[in-house]
């Protein structure tokens, strides 16, 4: 996804010292509010510091303070207030993208197969996508994370949330909101908590996550694996785009549809100019071939990714994503 988010790129041009200072000021202000028993204001300040500052827990233990504050807040009293768009309907689980004349299925294997891990290593080496069925079924997050569970764990925590159909639209925007307000969606907006380093902000949830073994195939340490969370209702969309690193994408809850394009066909997917140069202008679900005629030269690779499945996305491969159900996903970027 394009690096245009509040938490992943907004401050790239801002001096690092300013970010560290922002974190320190946030810690002091949140601590003062905490001592005054103003827990809601304290957690709001702490989370803004975590989202927008420079986290260095050894110098400024802001994560620990945020956890302590959140533990003093009252829990959620009414889980039934979750917005209907976050309610799971099994009837929508197995929908697939409408095939194009140039569609072909993504290669897949089953985690129960003896040759599965060898096929994963081969896919990583050859830089070809691979869908691994049931690869993460035993991950605790897959077994226990639901929207009521996350509401209980995160209710008063503040995160950057997308507003709009997809980030390449002109009317797309972002704002900070609590998880409780996000999942209750009283304004009936199209919301998506996308590409957020949630574990940097709420590290205790990491205990439910197992980093896929292949992320360590090149002796990569856990610190070099970037983990991003994706939480949203049905019909969230990420337009066709590329990522700068290899990605093992794990579906924790619900179902997502993928459509991918080999980077050798980049010129035929009509990338935007400028900051969105890693994003295609083509609506790959319903391509307008009169406007983008060369898209007919592209072969697209399709897959349906269910809870417990993992999809290996090689570096620079174009991929479009749509959720068919309320969805929780984790992407593991590695080298």
UniProtKB/TrEMBL annotation:
Ranges of residues in domain JmjC: 191-335
Xref: InterPro entries: Cupin_8, JmjC_dom
Cofactor(s) the protein needs: Fe(2+)
Subcellular location: Nucleus
SMART domains reported for this sequence: JmjC (SM00558)
Alphabetized UniProt keyword annotations: Iron, Metal-binding, Nucleus, Oxidoreductase
Gene Ontology terms: cellular component: nucleus
Domain of life: Eukaryota
Major location (coarse): nucleus
Pfam families cross-referenced by the UniProt entry: Cupin_8 (PF13621)
UniProt keyword Nucleus present: yes
Protein's recorded name: JmjC domain-containing protein
Entry's Gene Ontology molecular function annotations: histone H3K36 demethylase activity; metal ion binding
């Amino acid at each position: 996804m394009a690096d245009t988010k509040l938490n992943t790129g907004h401050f790239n041009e801002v001096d690092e010292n300013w970010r560290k200072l922002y974190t320190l000021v946030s810690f002091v202000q949140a601590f003062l509010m905490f001592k005054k028993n103003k827990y809601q204001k304290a957690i709001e300040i702490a989370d803004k510091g975590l989202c927008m500052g420079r986290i260095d827990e050894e110098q400024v233990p802001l994560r620990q303070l945020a956890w302590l504050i959140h533990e003093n807040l009252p829990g959620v009293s009414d889980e039934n207030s979750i917005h209907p768009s976050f309610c799971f309907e099994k009837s929508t689980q197995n929908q697939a993208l409408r095939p194009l004349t140039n569609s072909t299925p993504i290669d897949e294997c089953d985690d129960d197969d003896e040759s599965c891990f060898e096929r994963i290593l081969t896919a990583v080496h050859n830089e070809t996508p691979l869908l691994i069925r049931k690869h993460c079924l035993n991950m605790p997050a897959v077994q226990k994370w639901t929207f009521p569970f996350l509401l209980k764990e995160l209710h008063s925590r503040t995160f950057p949330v997308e507003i709009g159909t997809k980030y390449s639209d002109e009317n797309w925007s972002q704002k900070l909101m609590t998880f409780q307000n996000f999942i209750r969606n009283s304004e009936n907006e199209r919301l998506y908590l996308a590409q957020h380093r949630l574990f940097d902000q709420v590290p205790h949830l990491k205990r439910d996550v197992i980093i896929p073994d292949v992320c360590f195939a090149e002796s990569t340490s856990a610190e070099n694996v970037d983990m991003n969370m994706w939480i949203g209702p049905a019909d969230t969309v990420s337009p066709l785009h590329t990522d700068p690193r290899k990605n093992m994408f794990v579906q924790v809850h619900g179902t997502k549809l993928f459509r991918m394009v080999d980077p050798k066909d980049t010129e035929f997917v009509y990338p935007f100019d400028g900051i969105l140069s890693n994003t295609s202008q083509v609506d790959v679900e319903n391509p307008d071939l009169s406007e983008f005629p060369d898209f007919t030269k592209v072969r697209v690779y399709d897959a349906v990714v269910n809870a417990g499945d993992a999809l290996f996305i090689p570096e620079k491969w174009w991929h479009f994503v749509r959720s068919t159900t309320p969805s929780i996903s984790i992407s593991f970027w590695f080298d």
